[in-house]
From TrEMBL:
SUPFAM superfamilies from the UniProt entry: Cytochrome P450
Record membrane topology: Peripheral membrane protein
Organism taxonomic ancestry: Eukaryota, Metazoa, Chordata, Craniata, Vertebrata
Organism this protein belongs to: Mystacornis crossleyi
Cofactor entry: heme b; heme
PROSITE patterns (UniProt xref): CYTOCHROME_P450
Annotated protein name in UniProt: Steroid 21-hydroxylase
Gene Ontology annotations for the cellular component aspect, listed alphabetically: endoplasmic reticulum membrane
Length: 390
């Protein structure tokens, strides 16, 4: 409740009719905006590579760069060309990262289990509330900005410096009810607000973390980097979302990264609505279950050499691809799974097409992961050595 405005969000909200409408509207809006995804990811990927190139061959920590560009991708999908200024968006992306780190701390997690503890002094809680306020102020400002510019608010006119906003093929237009082809209708203000929050959080920190893991693993396997670059050079043009079948090794590398280091190692808590059983064990109504995606995707009964980074496993006949569930499954699976997979595929492909990844002064990165709501790679620095253009 501390981060969801009392349960109005997709991730933590209860399964009521309003929640189902909210989820359906978000899924429909993402599907409607999918036609813009290819050009949008190419443009954002080019900007990502330009920022990486600006560092020359000096060692850099790539995570903040990745976080800004995944956040910018969501902003463009939500708002079209009417995105916030880069400085404002970069500050917001930092806020999201800090928020998830603080929320995952045990001193804060305990407050939902024992609400009376909120009355005691808690520096973590104070910081969390400050970050939530920053988050909510940013999101509300974007909603107001786009509502004021809409044709309905302008009385059908674009005078007085107004503009038709948001553009009709954006996610926000669908959620506001401005897109007649979108399902779900307009959302109530609190559900609209938290839908945007979920899209930003789900599409920024988790995707950036997965991209960071992919780069870290490839630093440990330079021969795989070379094979990926050869595959990319053999393709005609830069990678796009529709090229997953044409670039099987790149797609397998994305899948293996998500298998070995799912961005959210523990899926969202589920509550049993009725008495049932799971794996032969009784589950009483009201029981809270937390799926362990990290353990499931390293089950030795399903995956050979489960702790090894082996994208080749997905190229072999009979690969257990259906057991790959990094975004969960069922009614609470991530609605942005397709977007995240496409973003990882395009961004990683563009990076490998333009750069050779080499370890920084500290050597190869550690691969154990930092505990938290999002499974992050330990901080590392690397050198991005420009390649000859293919």
């Amino acid at each position: 409740s501390l981060v969801s405005q009392g349960g109005w969000d997709l991730a933590l909200g209860g399964p009521c009719p309003g929640w189902r409408q909210q989820r359906g509207a978000v899924r429909g809006a993402l599907a409607r905006a999918g036609g813009r995804l290819g050009p949008l990811l190419w443009l954002q990927g080019q900007e990502l590579c330009e920022e990486l190139r600006s560092h020359g061959e000096a060692p850099l920590d790539p995570f903040e760069v990745f976080t800004f560009h995944t956040c910018s991708t969501i902003a463009r999908l939500l708002f079209g060309d009417l995105v916030p200024p880069p400085g404002e968006l970069r500050a917001f992306s930092r806020c999201l990262g800090e928020l998830l780190q603080v929320w995952g701390h045990s001193s804060v997690q305990a407050l939902d289990l024992l609400p009376p503890l909120r009355a005691l002094p808690n520096p973590g809680l104070r910081k969390l509330l400050r970050l939530v306020q920053h988050r909510d102020t940013f999101v509300e400002a974007q909603i107001r900005r786009h509502q004021v510019g809409s044709p309905r608010e302008l009385g059908g006119s674009q005078g007085s410096g107004g503009c038709s906003s948001p553009p009709p093929d954006t996610v926000l237009a669908a959620l506001l009810g401005h897109d007649p082809g979108a399902r779900g209708g307009p959302l109530s203000p609190p559900r609209l607000h938290m839908a945007l929050v979920d899209l930003f959080i789900g599409g920024t920190e988790t995707t950036a973390a997965a991209l960071g893991w992919a780069v870290a693993f490839l630093l440990h396997r330079p021969e795989l980097q070379a094979r990926l670059r050869a595959e990319l050079e053999g393709a005609q043009g830069p990678p796009g979302p529709g090229d997953m079948g044409r670039l099987p090794l790149l797609q397998a590398t994305v899948s293996e990264t998500l298998r070995l280091r799912p961005p959210a190692p523990l899926a969202l808590p589920h509550c049993a609505l009725r008495h049932t059983s799971l794996g032969g064990l009784p589950v009483v109504a009201g029981t809270v279950l937390v799926p362990n995606l990290l353990a499931a995707q390293q089950d030795p009964d399903i995956w050979q050499h489960p702790e090894a980074f082996l994208p080749e496993r997905f190229l072999a006949p009979g690969a257990p691809s259906r057991s790959l569930l990094p975004f969960g499954c069922g009614a609470r699976s991530c609605p942005g799974e397709g977007l995240a997979r496409a973003e990882l595929f395009v961004f990683l492909g563009l990076i490998l097409r333009e750069f050779r990844l080499e370890p920084g002064p500290g050597g190869l990165p550690g691969l154990r992961g930092s505990p938290g709501t999002v499974l992050r790679c330990p901080p590392f620095r690397l050198r991005m050595v420009p390649c000859q253009p293919p």
